[in-house]
């Protein structure tokens, strides 16, 4: 039912008319609102599509659930590499990718537009070094984009883009945000939310651990004690 409504909306929006070229809004949707991670998950493709005036430039960002991350800098002390200083980054996207309708479109989007606040008070130069190290680490894990994804314009007011999620995609709510620009001025912006969830036995264990953390910790302790006692009695039998 939702797909039929969306298709009807897109057709009406894309229908040629005198006012079609003056539309200043943007519509965004995602083909799959939920991505399931199973034991054999090796990545997924997120297809987004929507409508906007053909004369507008479009940017799309995909952000993963916020996380706190720590970057540590090692120092050689007496021949040993030890953690010397560190910087904690709070509530930053655990995944980030972006798309642009034209590579020649100059707008502040992408990694340079990301706000990566550090929790510790350091100099601006040190802060930049920590931010660069953080981005490099996430890019090495394929969690942060290295280049922009193209926004395709198949015809009329339609647009489309594809994002790739890696095998280590974080679980949680992902935010899609599409922005329409006309003469470098924002004239429309919209958001959608999609979710990445864990399914199967692994997902059930994770949900149990989150919902009943004390019981999960207690059961883990009991299993460890039973394994230890079993090993002890077996070793005594062999003597």
Detailed description of the structure:
This protein is of the alpha+beta class and about 240 residues long. The chain has 2 domains: about 200 residues, Macroglobulin (MG2) domain (Immunoglobulin-like, Sandwich); about 40 residues. The protein contains 4 helices and 12 strands. The strands form 3 sheets. A 6-stranded mixed beta sheet has the order 2-12-11-4-7-8. A 4-stranded antiparallel beta sheet has the order 1-3-10-9, covered by helices on one side. Helix 2 links the parallel strand 7 and strand 8. Helix 3 crosses helix 4.
Which keywords apply here?
single chain, 239 residues, alpha+beta, Immunoglobulin-like, 2 domains, six-stranded mixed sheet, four-stranded antiparallel sheet, 39% strand, flat
Class inferred from helices and paired strands = alpha+beta
Largest sheet: 6 strands, mixed
Number of domains: 2
Q: What is the CATH architecture term of the largest domain? A: Sandwich
The tally of beta strands, per DSSP, is 12
Q: If strands are numbered along the chain, what order do they take across the biggest sheet?
A: 2-12-11-4-7-8
Instruction: Let me know the CATH homologous superfamily of the largest domain.
Output: Macroglobulin (MG2) domain
CATH topology of the largest domain: Immunoglobulin-like
Number of helices: 4
Which regions have little confidence, pLDDT < 50, spanning 5+ residues? 1-24
Could you tell me the strand content as a percent range?
35-45%
Shape: flat
Rg, please?
24 Å
Mean pLDDT: 79
Summarize the helix and strand pattern as letters: HEEEEEEEHEEEEEHH
CA-to-CA gap between the ends?
70 Å
- CATH class annotation of the largest domain: Mainly Beta
Give helix % range. Answer: 25-40%
């Amino acid at each position: 039912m939702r797909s039929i409504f969306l298709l009807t909306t897109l057709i009406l929006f894309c229908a040629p008319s005198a006012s079609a070229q003056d539309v200043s809004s943007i519509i965004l949707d995602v083909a799959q609102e939920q991505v399931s991670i199973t034991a054999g998950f090796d990545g997924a493709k997120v297809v987004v599509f929507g409508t906007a005036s053909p004369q507008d430039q479009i940017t799309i960002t995909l952000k993963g659930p916020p996380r706190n991350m720590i970057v540590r800098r090692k120092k050689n002390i007496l021949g040993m590499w030890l953690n010397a200083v560190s910087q904690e980054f709070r509530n930053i996207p655990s995944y980030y990718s972006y798309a642009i309708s034209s590579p020649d479109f100059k707008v502040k989007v992408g990694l340079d537009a990301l706000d990566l606040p550090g929790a510790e008070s350091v100099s601006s130069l040190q802060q930049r070094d920590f931010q660069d190290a953080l981005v490099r680490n996430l890019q090495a894990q394929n969690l942060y984009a290295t280049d922009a994804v193209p926004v395709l314009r198949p015809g009329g007011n339609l647009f489309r883009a594809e994002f790739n999620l890696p095998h280590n995609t974080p679980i949680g709510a992902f935010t899609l945000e599409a922005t329409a620009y006309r003469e470098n001025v924002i004239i429309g912006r919209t958001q959608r939310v999609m979710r990445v969830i864990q399914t199967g036995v692994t997902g059930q264990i994770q949900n149990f651990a989150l919902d009943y953390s004390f019981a999960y910790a207690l059961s883990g302790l009991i299993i460890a004690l039973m394994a230890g006692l079993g090993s002890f009695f077996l070793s005594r039998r062999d003597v």
